[in-house]
Design brief:
By secondary structure, this protein is of the alpha/beta class. The chain has three helices and six strands, in the order H-E-E-E-E-E-H-E-H. It has a five-stranded mixed barrel with strand order 1-2-3-6-4.
C-alpha cells in the first residue's frame, strides 16, 4: 500500500505542473480571441466613421474626433511642408498645405502624394472644396530624424510641429477627394488597411503551445508510470 502511495505522489507533482502550464497557455489563447473580437469591433467602427457622410468641420473639432469625415471649402495659402513618402508611383512627398477654411480656422490639409520632381513647383493659392477625414498622424517616433527645414523635407508628420511651422490650428485633415478646384496631389485617404490585427495568429500560437505542453505532460506521466511499474 505504501509503495502504491509513493507511485501516486510521484505522478501528482508533474500532473499539477503540467495542468497548470496548460491552463495558463490556454487562457492566453482565450485572451487573444477576446482581443481579436475587440479589435474587429474597433476596425468596424473606424471603417464606418472613415466612410461616413461628411460633416462640417466645426461640428467635429470640439471635441476633436479623429477619423471623422468632413467636407470644407477654403483656400491654400501657398505655405506647405513636404513629408517623405514612397508609394507605387515611386518616391515622393506628402503635400501638407496651410489651408484657410471659409469662415473657419486655418488648418493643415494633407492633399496627398506628389512626385519628387514636383516638390518645388509653385502651386500658389487655390480655392478647394475638399472631402476628407480628421486625423492625428502617428508616423513619428523617437527614432525619426528632425526635419530638414532648409530644404523643407520632413521625415514624419508631427502634427504639432507642422502646425507651428505653418502657423495653423492643431487641426489635421487628410483629403479623400477634391470635389472642386485644382487638385495638385494624388489623395492618400485614410483606411484601416494598415492597422495591425494579429490577434488570431497569436491565439493559434498560444493554443498550439498549450496542446504541445499537454502532450509533453501526458508523455512525461506515461514515462514515470512505466518506470514505476
Amino acid at each position: 500500500m505504501s509503495e502504491q502511495k509513493g507511485k501516486m505522489r510521484g505522478l501528482i507533482v508533474p500532473l499539477i505542473f503540467g495542468l497548470g502550464g496548460f491552463a495558463i497557455l490556454a487562457a492566453l489563447g482565450i485572451w487573444q480571441l477576446q482581443r481579436l473580437a475587440w479589435k474587429e469591433s474597433v476596425l468596424s467602427e473606424m471603417e464606418a466613421l472613415l466612410n461616413g457622410a461628411p460633416m462640417a468641420l466645426e461640428d467635429v473639432i470640439d471635441p476633436y474626433r479623429r477619423f471623422a469625415p468632413v467636407q470644407m471649402t477654403g483656400t491654400t495659402t501657398g505655405q506647405e511642408v513636404h513629408a517623405l513618402k514612397s508609394t507605387g508611383q515611386g518616391a515622393g512627398y506628402r503635400l501638407v498645405s496651410r489651408f484657410a477654411v471659409d469662415d473657419g480656422p486655418v488648418i493643415m490639409l494633407d492633399e496627398g502624394f506628389i512626385r519628387a520632381s514636383m516638390k518645388d513647383a509653385d502651386r500658389g493659392q487655390r480655392v478647394l472644396t475638399v472631402e476628407g477625414n480628421l486625423h492625428v498622424p502617428d508616423d513619428v517616433s523617437s527614432a525619426t530624424p528632425a526635419p530638414d527645414l532648409d530644404r523643407n523635407i520632413w521625415y514624419g508628420r508631427d502634427m504639432h510641429q507642422i502646425a507651428e511651422a505653418l502657423e495653423t490650428e492643431p487641426i489635421f485633415v487628410v483629403a479623400r477627394q477634391v470635389i472642386e478646384g485644382e487638385a495638385v496631389a494624388a489623395p492618400l485617404p485614410l483606411s484601416t488597411a494598415g492597422v495591425p490585427n494579429s490577434h488570431l495568429g497569436y491565439a493559434v500560437q498560444w493554443f498550439g503551445l498549450a496542446a504541445v505542453w499537454l502532450g509533453m505532460t501526458l508523455f512525461l506521466l506515461w514515462r514515470i508510470r512505466q518506470r514505476t511499474v
